[in-house]
């Protein structure tokens, strides 16, 4: 009798749990469908994308109009549907933020720095989960500290666009001050420190001892003096490279017949050439030296060749010049290096658009190569 009672009791509990989870699952599905509908109607999501995005959140409840309020707020501050779609796709929980308590105070900080449109959307996206944390005094403290170091809101904006989490996720004065002081004691000017901050804010989150080692290595590895303009570029490069990686990359140049003198000429002119991956360095040297016939001493004195993307810049521009020279050899200067260091607009103006009518294949070739 007791056994039968326990069995009935257990079956009853299981039945109740079954009803509970079935009801909860049905409600969750209903709420997710509602969110998917908002994404389709308000932001132009496809049905498939809306369903997959809404499946990543379980915060919607009956009567919860936060998603629409958040969308309306982002539109009011100047973000278009493309911006908002991108934000919601990467972080759907943004739609459940409290507009007044969470979003408005943070957006106000960004607006103080004149960030808007695409820049504002990118900064929000890069802030990740930190953007959803409550605003507190440390954010204002960090912002004031960056203004003091960088001197202008324009510079602070550039800095924040690089690493927006520095506003929310750290105690900047405590974390960064030791490295700022170290560089000042080593003779770095305020202008050099500002450049390093904007190039790569994470340099200043290193342990002070490691940053001192990096500065010493720039002198020993690259034979650059601290009063040289390229010295801070060397510091920037070596933040990413340990000693073994530098040795491997120098060996690649030697394997293509470069002398140590030529290698150091290259590195002293532009240390950033060593930040390219080993595969990219090999591909560039193969193309420039073996296919085009450039000699090492020329490349050493023209280091930009090795910092530009082979696939996206050097090859497309080489192909345009090759085609133009076959048909109209006297139309323009056909020096590849000159063409490679041109800005995009200058290259189009000088080497592509003049031939658009009489040689449309030149224009088509270049546009296709950029896709």
UniProtKB/TrEMBL annotation:
Note the superkingdom of the native organism: Eukaryota
GO terms, molecular function: nucleic acid binding
Q: Which InterPro entries match?
A: MTERF, MTERF_sf
Entry keyword set: Transcription, Transcription regulation, Transcription termination, Transit peptide
Assigned protein family: Belongs to the mTERF family.
Q: Which PANTHER family match?
A: CGI-12 PROTEIN-RELATED (PTHR13068), MITOCHONDRIAL TRANSCRIPTION TERMINATION FACTOR (PTHR13068:SF127)
Protein name as catalogued: Uncharacterized protein LOC107782567
Which organism's genome codes for this protein?
Nicotiana tabacum
């Amino acid at each position: 009798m007791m056994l039968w009672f326990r069995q009935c009791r257990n079956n009853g509990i299981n039945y109740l749990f079954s009803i509970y989870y079935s009801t909860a699952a049905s409600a969750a599905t209903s709420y997710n469908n509602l969110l998917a509908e908002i994404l389709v109607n308000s932001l132009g999501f496809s049905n498939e994308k809306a369903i997959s995005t809404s499946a990543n959140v379980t915060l919607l409840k009956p009567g919860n109009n936060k998603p629409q309020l958040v969308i309306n707020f982002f539109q009011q501050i100047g973000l278009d549907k493309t911006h908002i779609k991108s934000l919601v796709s990467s972080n759907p929980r943004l739609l459940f933020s409290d507009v007044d308590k969470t979003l408005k105070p943070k957006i106000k900080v960004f607006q103080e720095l004149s960030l808007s449109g695409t820049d504002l959307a990118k900064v929000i996206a890069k802030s990740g989960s930190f953007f959803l944390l409550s605003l507190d005094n440390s954010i204002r403290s960090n912002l004031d500290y960056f203004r003091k170091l960088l001197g202008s809101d324009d510079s602070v904006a550039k800095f924040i666009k690089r690493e927006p989490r520095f506003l929310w996720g750290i105690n900047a004065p405590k974390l960064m001050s030791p490295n700022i002081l170290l560089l000042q004691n080593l003779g770095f000017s305020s202008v050099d420190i500002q450049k390093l901050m904007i190039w790569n804010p994470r340099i200043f989150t290193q342990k002070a001892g490691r940053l001192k080692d990096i500065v010493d290595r720039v002198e020993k590895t690259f034979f650059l003096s601290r009063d040289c303009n390229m010295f801070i570029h060397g510091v920037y490069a070596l933040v990413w490279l340990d000693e073994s990686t530098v040795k491997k990359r120098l060996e690649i140049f030697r394997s293509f017949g470069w002398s140590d003198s030529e290698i150091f000429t290259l590195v002293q002119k532009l240390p950033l050439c060593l930040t390219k991956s080993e595969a990219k360095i090999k591909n560039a040297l193969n193309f420039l030296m073996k296919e085009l016939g450039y000699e090492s001493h020329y490349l050493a004195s023209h280091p930009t060749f090795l910092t530009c993307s082979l696939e996206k810049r050097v090859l497309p521009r080489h192909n345009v010049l090759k085609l133009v020279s076959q048909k109209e050899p006297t139309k323009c200067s056909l020096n590849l290096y000159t063409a490679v260091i041109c800005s995009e607009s200058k290259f189009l103006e000088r080497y592509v658009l003049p031939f658009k009518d009489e040689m449309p294949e030149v224009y088509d070739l270049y546009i296709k190569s950029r896709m």
